[in-house]
Design a protein that fits this description.
The chain is an alpha+beta fold. The longest helix is centred in the first third of the chain and has 41 residues. Helices cover 57% and strands 18% of the residues.
């Protein structure tokens, strides 16, 4: 029975592979395009000169907005507390989280001194063609390299980024755990957590 299941699984995998490869190639296109543009932006020394990352953040936001599904990610970061939040609180957190993600990404790119990237070949074919993982190896100014796994979801308007793993660290899960911990600390006050999160982001931006 086990052998029969293995043969069946292999047959399904083989049958899905061409479809999966085509989907992976489609998902990799926005990642490749955004990565190339990001390297070009980082090469503009005027955008990241000094401690003020505001100009760099503006450019990164311009590149990320068409590719990232901020609504999708913010909903999953809120987790089980999404249902408890009001419509206004959900919309407010999406905006706050968008600024958080852009600032985190900008500071990471500057900190790592990214100088180049390489789009890695498709890994294990996805069993769901509308969900793909696109991996990129980035090079820093030194000899270090980092692996970024971009989790892409096919939406009606095109492929969108819904999560990132940086060298195995699940960024969306990290933010989700952070949000849940803050709600617990604030005794279930979701609105208070969002307000504090927003104030913290605004403080960071003003530095």
């Amino acid at each position: 029975m086990r052998k029969l299941l293995s043969v069946f699984s292999l047959a399904v995998l083989v049958a899905l592979s061409p479809v999966s490869l085509a989907s992976w190639q489609a998902a990799s296109e926005p990642v490749d395009k955004a990565s190339a543009e990001m390297i070009s932006v980082l090469g503009d020394g005027g955008l990241s000169a000094g401690d003020d990352v505001t100009p760099l953040m503006a450019e990164i936001e311009r590149l990320l907005v068409p590719v990232v599904d901020f609504d999708y990610i913010a909903k999953r970061v809120m987790g089980k507390y999404y249902r408890k939040a009001t419509t206004e609180q959900r919309a407010e957190f999406t905006g706050v989280f968008k600024n958080t993600l852009i600032r985190t990404y900008a500071k990471a790119l500057v900190g790592f001194e990214i100088t180049g990237y390489e789009l890695l070949p498709e890994g294990r074919p996805s069993p769901k063609p509308n969900k793909q993982i696109v991996s990129v190896k980035v090079r820093s100014g030194g000899s270090a390299t980092y692996k970024l796994d971009y989790y892409m979801l096919e939406q009606p308007e095109g492929w969108k980024l819904v999560n990132v793993h940086l060298d195995g660290i699940n960024l969306r899960l990290n933010f989700k755990n952070q949000f849940a911990s803050l709600v617990k600390k604030n005794r279930g006050d979701v609105g208070g957590v969002i307000a504090n999160w927003k104030a913290q982001v605004e403080t960071d931006v003003s530095k």
